[in-house]
Each structure stands twice: as C-alpha cells, then as structure tokens.
Design brief:
Layout (H helix, E strand, L loop, with lengths): L3 H9 L4 H8 L3 H14 L11 H8 L15 H8 L6 H15 L6 H16 L11 E6 L4 E4 L6 E11 L5 E6 L4 H15 L5 E4 L6 E4 L4 E4 L1 H9 L3 E2 L12 H10 L2
C-alpha cells in the first residue's frame, strides 16, 4: 500500500520530490501524481486521524474497471543475457518472441513496444541519482561495525558495548554513544540524545538498513520504517530516508561512519 499520508506530510514540510521518493519507497511519478491530485481535491496536511492510506487511495484514485489483456511481456532477464552474445540484436529477439506468443496463443507486442519495455528495464536497473547536501539538512546514523569493550578496572570484567554513531552529511559534525545492546529502545534513545546534542532537528535522518530502523519485506522486497521509529520522526517533524542497499553513491555513510568507527 502506498504511503499516501506520509507523502502528504512530507510535502507539507516542503521536502523535494527525490527526497520523498527515498523516504516512502515510491516512484517519482507517484509523488508528483499524489501532489497534483491532492491540490485538485484540496486535500492538505494535517489529516483526520481516521483517514487511512486505504481511504485516501479510494478518494484520490478510484480504481477503474479492470480490462483483461492477453499481451505477453518479454522475458527481460533472458533478453539481457542474449544481447551480450555476438550477432544477437533486438530485432532477432523480437522475432523469437513472436514465435513464442504464436505457440502459446498470446497477443504479442509490436516491435516499438517491445523495444520500449526493454529500454525501461535497462533504465530501471542502471538508474542513479545525485542528492546535493546543504548545511543542517541531513544527518547519517548507524551502529558502528565493530563492538567496543568496557573493562571494569576493579574486577577486570569485560562488557561488550555497541556504539551508535551519527554525522552531519555536510559538516561531518559527529556524535557517538555506547549502549549495552542494539535493541529498538536503545536505537530510539540514541536518536533522541543525538538531536539534543546537535541542538536541533535536521530535515532528514538517513539510517543504514539496520533492523532497528528498517523492516525488510522479503516477499515484495520493500523497506518499511519501523513503527516506533516512524512515530519518533512524526514527533520531531523530520523525515526518515533509508540509504538504498548497495548504492554507496547516494550518501557518504561508508566514508563518514567508517572513519568514526576506526577513529573514535
């Protein structure tokens, strides 16, 4: 379900479209469509407490009658592999695709449509985006990679400590705090202490994909902000924007957080 409430809340905070895309795990087209439709219907934040995402979808985007189509979509994974071979081109693969559709009694795409969907698949896999940084705009947070050790000078007992680290993306102004565990309560407490330490609330908090910040839906391969962390964001009127998995170009987490871990 699209997070219509969260999109409207972040729009009211004047976040950029690209920032909302990352915060809500939706497409840019969806954000633009919600913004336009909300303006047309004069829907604005704050919303009534009983206005759920389901109700918003029904109001803003009533579902049209479904039309049945027998058009078969190409096997994009197969096409990608075949195009790497010498002598194979899209025209040849389209001819092969037509023959498969004929055997299975399915409607086939025209050659122009066939090429269009292949192009869309390529762009989706290779899309990148640069996000400029401004002073005070965002802070990156994570648990440090290695655990620390606290030694009792009297007994010699060694206790493990898990270090929360944070750094402002523009200035690299840093904060660190040790906790006895990496549970949800410690994560929220660390974020609260961090805001108290820096003396303000940035527009965006960017966590890595730690389980205390982000839930991963294995079926739909989506990432959702943990409910308690979402409540924290709404209380402080900020946006949680998780870093994309395996996309180090998005943010400087590896360099900033990594340096803090190695140089406490």
């Amino acid at each position: 379900m699209t997070k219509y409430r969260e999109i409207l809340r972040l729009l009211s905070n004047q976040l950029k479209t690209d920032e909302i895309v990352h915060a809500c795990s939706v497409s840019k087209k969806t954000v633009i469509k919600v913004k336009k439709r909300a303006r047309e219907l004069e829907i604005s934040w704050p919303l009534d407490a009983d206005m759920t995402d389901e109700k918003l979808e029904t109001i803003m985007f009533p579902k049209p009658e479904k039309s049945v189509s027998t058009k078969r979509m190409p096997d994009f994974e197969y096409i990608r592999k075949e195009l790497l071979r010498n002598g194979v081109n899209k025209k040849l693969l389209w001819t092969e695709y037509l023959e498969q559709c004929r055997r299975e009694g399915a409607d086939a795409l025209m050659y122009s449509q066939f090429c269009y969907y292949i192009q869309q698949d390529e762009q989706k896999r290779h899309a990148t985006m640069h996000i400029p940084r401004k002073p005070g705009q965002q802070i990156e947070v994570d648990w440090a990679g290695d655990t620390a050790s606290i030694i009792d000078r009297d007994t010699g007992e060694i206790t493990k400590a898990y270090v929360f680290v944070a750094a402002m993306s523009y200035s690299t102004y840093a904060y660190a705090e040790a906790f006895p565990d990496m549970k949800q309560a410690s994560w929220i407490k660390a974020n609260v202490h961090m805001l108290e330490y820096i003396g303000g609330v940035p527009r965006m908090i960017i966590p890595d994909n730690t389980a205390t910040a982000v839930n991963r839906n294995g079926i739909r391969k989506e990432r959702e902000i943990n409910p308690s962390y979402q409540e924290f964001a709404e209380h402080y009127n900020t946006a949680i924007i998780p870093a994309r998995i395996r996309h180090p170009k998005d943010y400087r987490r590896k360099s900033v957080i990594g340096n803090l871990s190695r140089n406490p």
